[in-house]
Design goal:
Layout lengths: L22 E2 L5 E2 L5 H9 L2 H4 L17 H6 L3 E4 L8 E2 L4 E4 L20 H9 L9 H13 L17 E2 H12 L13 H30 L2 H4 L2 H57 L2
Parallel strand pairs: 3-5, 4-6
Antiparallel strand pairs: 1-2, 4-5
Helix pairs in contact: 7-9
InterPro entries: DUF6601 (IPR046536)
Keywords: Membrane, Transmembrane, Transmembrane helix
Length: 291
């Protein structure tokens, strides 16, 4: 956090209600943000999960500022407003990029203001996707950004280490978490909403592999029909080995995916049961404390 607010009060974006109505704490209980502002800010802005793997983030993205919104639109990425700061600037293979809308409190003089760089095209796209309040004018935005830059908002020492990297690839983050913390089943952020999506993601490459195997087997069959290759012992051994592989490979893959799905189901079942137990225990505690 900086020692001083990096812009003057006369360019502060004023609003009668710049804090959300409620927020969830780590116990999934709703509280008023104004009741504990430091706690709210830590939960709303903390990127501790990414800071823990900062030295591996180069595997998931380049250490450069994020590319502008007009680039995201030009590359047909779907812009998904997402309040989770942990998913801000994280993109998926489905061409979705998650962006956290700019909280109104960050545009108020009383709060720490993040580093923001934007062209006017980005400004319009940000408002169209509700990433920026509609009542913020372009001239006000230009003055705000200029003062941020003049007060060192772009200085690396004033930027959280996570934001030294721009966009991060979700699949790479999941792999980093899997190898670094052994969290194989969920990774950084579990990307599938249903088991059907999980099986489809794992089995989709099998389709292309099957086509390739069919082409190779056809080519080998043609080769065995020729005099030169039919008398070749190495080629016959290779054909035999590849034929066995083409039979067992897909079967083993399907069984492995089924086993992963079973592990995921068991893990979700245990996590859900534990969550239910903790949640209802907390309900009972609150009931016992109520008059």
């Amino acid at each position: 956090m900086p020692e001083n607010v990096p812009f003057n009060n006369d360019v502060s974006i004023l609003s009668t209600s710049y804090m959300p109505a409620a927020f969830r704490n780590e116990h999934y209980t709703l509280y008023k943000p104004t009741a504990d502002i430091p706690r709210f800010l830590e939960r709303d802005l903390s990127v501790e999960d990414l800071n823990k793997i900062h030295k591996y983030l180069w595997l998931a993205g380049r250490p450069m500022p994020p590319r502008p919104l007009n680039y995201q639109a030009a590359t047909s990425r779907d812009i998904v407003p997402d309040e989770r700061i942990s998913m801000h600037l994280v993109w998926e293979h489905s061409r979705r990029i998650h962006l956290k809308p700019i909280p109104r409190y960050l545009l108020n003089y009383q709060f720490w203001v993040s580093h923001l760089i934007c062209a006017k095209t980005d400004f319009v796209i940000a408002q169209d996707h509700h990433l920026l309040p509609k009542n913020v004018g372009w001239e006000d935005w230009v003055m705000l950004v200029q003062q941020l830059l003049e007060n060192g908002a772009a200085d690396p020492k004033n930027i959280n280490a996570r934001y030294l990297f721009g966009e991060l690839r979700l699949s790479r983050l999941n792999k980093i978490y899997a190898f670094r913390y052994g969290n194989v089943l969920r990774g950084y952020q579990f990307p599938y909403q249903t088991y059907g999506e999980l099986f489809l993601a794992y089995l989709a490459p099998l389709t292309a592999t099957t086509i390739y195997v069919a082409l190779v087997l056809t080519a080998m069959q043609v080769g065995l029909a020729t005099t030169r290759l039919s008398d070749s012992v190495p080629f016959q051994r290779a054909s035999y080995g590849f034929t066995v592989f083409s039979i067992l490979g897909p079967l083993i893959t399907i069984l492995l995916v089924g086993f992963i799905g079973l592990l995921q189901f068991a893990n979700n079942l245990v996590v859900t049961w534990r969550f239910k137990k903790q949640r209802f225990a907390r309900y009972e505690l609150l009931r016992s404390q109520s008059p």
